[in-house]
Specification:
Helix content is 11%, strand content 33%. The protein has two helices and ten strands; from the N terminus they run H-E-E-E-E-E-E-E-H-E-E-E. Strands 1, 3, 4, 6, 9 and 10 form a six-stranded mixed sheet that branches. Strands 2-5 form a two-stranded antiparallel ribbon. The chain is elongated, with a radius of gyration of 19 Å. The two termini are 37 Å apart.
Length: 170
């Protein structure tokens, strides 16, 4: 499906970023269409994540991040964590290649831990593959050694506005 088709379906059948979900029908959990396309001049994408925050019945706040789709054939480990995408960064040259990752990622995700009685919010986070950090560029440009312990690579990310869930009677 094209980005225009995905957006049209989302607006016709769903709630846009920044919107509010009303009380869930009995036995139903919210489903989210999440999609991202890389910047044409930027790095490929590593993964899409959904962040969820909620307040439990005792008033305590919680937050959890779910990896919902990713580039490559990686599988979550026994601990549920997704292995790193890898890296093509050449720190000495402050360069990288788009030979890993994906140009676009999309999936439909349903909250596996949904409780219709609890207020919640959801947001999408997209991570790019590793790229050289400004410290790597400065090291090359000024022909100096970065300070010991300096981070020379990074994974850029973008975060959507949240979608809010309000239970019935709240």
């Amino acid at each position: 499906a094209s980005p225009d088709t995905l957006a049209a379906a989302g607006y016709a059948k769903g709630v846009p970023m920044g919107g509010e979900l009303a009380a869930a029908p009995a036995g139903k959990a919210p489903m989210f269409l999440v999609a991202a396309i890389k910047d044409p001049q930027g790095a490929n994408l590593d993964r899409l994540q959904v962040g969820k925050g909620w307040v439990d019945a005792a008033g305590k706040t919680h937050e959890k991040v779910f990896d919902v789709t990713w580039a490559g054939e990686r599988k979550p480990g026994a601990d549920g964590r997704l292995p790193p995408v890898g890296s093509t960064v050449d720190v000495a040259k402050a360069t990288y290649t788009n030979s890993i990752g994906a140009a676009e990622l999309a999936t439909v995700w349903t909250d596996p831990e949904f409780d219709p009685a609890l207020r919640a919010f959801y947001y999408v986070r997209v991570l790019e593959i590793p790229t050289p950090r400004w410290t790597a560029h400065d090291q090359l440009r000024f022909k100096v050694q970065a300070p010991k312990g300096a981070t020379l690579t990074q994974q850029e990310r973008a975060i959507s506005s949240p979608i809010w869930y309000t239970p019935a009677g709240a």
